[in-house]
Amino acid sequence: MSTTPLNSESKSAKSIERVYKYVQKYIHDNALSPSVRDICAGAGLKSTSSVHTYLRRLDEMGLIEYRPGMRRAIILKNSAEGSSEEEPVSADVVKLNCIGKITAGQPIYAHEDYGDSQYVNKSIIGSDECFMLKVSGSSMINAHILDGDYIIVRKQNTCDEGDIIAALIGEEATVKRYGKLNGKPYLFPENELYSPIPFFDTEECKILGKVVGLHRYNIN
Amino acid sequence: MSTTPLNSESKSAKSIERVYKYVQKYIHDNALSPSVRDICAGAGLKSTSSVHTYLRRLDEMGLIEYRPGMRRAIILKNSAEGSSEEEPVSADVVKLNCIGKITAGQPIYAHEDYGDSQYVNKSIIGSDECFMLKVSGSSMINAHILDGDYIIVRKQNTCDEGDIIAALIGEEATVKRYGKLNGKPYLFPENELYSPIPFFDTEECKILGKVVGLHRYNIN
DNA sequence: CTCTTTTTAGAACATGTGTTTGACATAACC
DNA sequence: GGTTATGTCAAACACATGTTCTAAAAAGAG
Asked: How many CB atoms lie within 10 A of CB B184?
């Protein structure tokens, strides 16, 4: 094999692109694959074998999935093909399931769906590795997190000093502010009525994630 | 077998349903139409002509679009699947545009799109006649509404005593708690550093709506 | 039971469509 | 020039698959 001219736009590159574009458009418009002869017309080629060549090449490039022998069986192998599935409004939106209540000795973190779910913009929370918890109790009232609020938690195992985090202590989950006192780690409630909790990162004491957002629908 | 005397057709109804279900499943799984013979196997029918009959009937019923002669060309004609369109995730979700900043003498309420928009469950806020405002300032800090929060406002012209509302005073928009002092209406800040504002419902002083929700993405 | 209607089956038919083969043109290269 | 690689084409081929026809089987109706 000799060196292929990578720098110059070869003739085939243009044809391949036309074929690919036409397949995309056809599937988008008609919700079904074009036939080889459809592509002939659409891409300005006069021979089915030319199209055949390019289809096979597009398959090798991973841009389409091509089933030999099957009629109208081209599938676009892009991001996600999408058909009759739960789809976000835009690519920026993620669905967060509320997976439990938090604080004050509730069960927590069991069933993967507490019932409702809400939608937030991925660009706002910065990640899609998030989940949602409903707050119970008012131990964080000075941080303006109230009973009944939904907090958005980004999953992570560590956190910085001063972060408000969701943590698991034994069977109990809480929202608290992580900090240090005399060099030792504590979870600080933001309420004078509660006391700081010594925190040891073990199997029993586990950081669930950092609180990155809050939704409140009880305004009083 | 199972004598289902529900209505006139019983056996064909079951077959039609099996065919339809299988077509749905096949398209969902493979992202392309099944062939008539695929459906034969999938729906437990042994004759292509039976499938053919049912496909034509499903087309008449409007459940599928069936292109005579075309291979693997069945299209599901369900709840609009026009791709790449702005569609809600579920019927329960509404998109709220942030239409401006609020409090402390900003312009406000002008351009119908301040930039970002967020999604909330209609069932939670109880109405889709809502809009969103970004809070600026800390005059409502004791009500746990902070600088940078997004508040969800349900449009209404009146409100009850004690409601937290968004109101327009001259050119200026604010969030305040509506209440009365000595029988006269006031807008109360929830911050000792600010004073109550006498409120007269005129062209200059206007209730925009009631605050029904709050989103916060700055957690400190 | 007999007659009618509906549902399914089987086979034959028709054709859309994937696949292959070989040829022709054009360009690149020695 | 001759040689080789590449892009395209036309035609022939193979067959998966849509379509139709006729009839058997099953279900109701009387």
From this structure: 11
Q: Is the pLDDT of residue B183 over 80?
A: yes
> What's the per-residue H, E or C state across A64-115?
EECCCCCCCCCEECCCCCCCCCCCCCCCCEEEEEEEEEECCCCCCCCCCCCC
Dump the DSSP string for A129-195: -EEEEEE-SSTTGGGT--TT-EEEEEE-S---TT-EEEEEETTEEEEEEEEEETTEEEEE-SSTTS-
Whole-prediction pTM: 0.54
Q: Residue B45 corresponds to which amino acid?
A: L
| Interface of chain A toward chain B, CB-CB under 8 angstroms | 28, 30-33, 35, 70-73, 75, 81-90, 93, 95, 116, 118-121, 124-125, 141, 143-144, 146, 164, 211-217, 219-220
Q: In chain A, what are the domain boundaries?
A: 11-76, 93-215
Q: How far apart are the C-alpha atoms of B22 and B31, rounded to whole Å?
A: 13
Q: What is the pLDDT of residues B146-178, one digit of tens each?
A: 988 888 888 888 888 889 998 877 667 788 999
Enumerate residue ranges in chain A where pLDDT < 70.
1-13, 78-117, 122-123, 126-128, 170-172, 201-204
CATH 1.20.1540.10 fits B11-76, yes or no: no
B37-95: pLDDT as tens digits: 889 988 888 989 889 888 888 888 878 888 888 888 888 876 444 433 333 445 455 66
Find the residue in A nearest to B152 (Cα).
A217
Q: Say yes or no: Cβ of A41 under 7 A from any atom of strand D.
A: no
Q: Looking at residue A114, what is its pLDDT?
A: 42
Nucleotides of D under 7 A from a protein CB: 5-12, 16-22, 27-28
Residues of A in contact with B76 (CB under 8 A): 84
Q: CATH number of B93-215: 2.10.109.10, 3.40.50.80, 1.10.3720.10, 2.60.120.260? A: 2.10.109.10
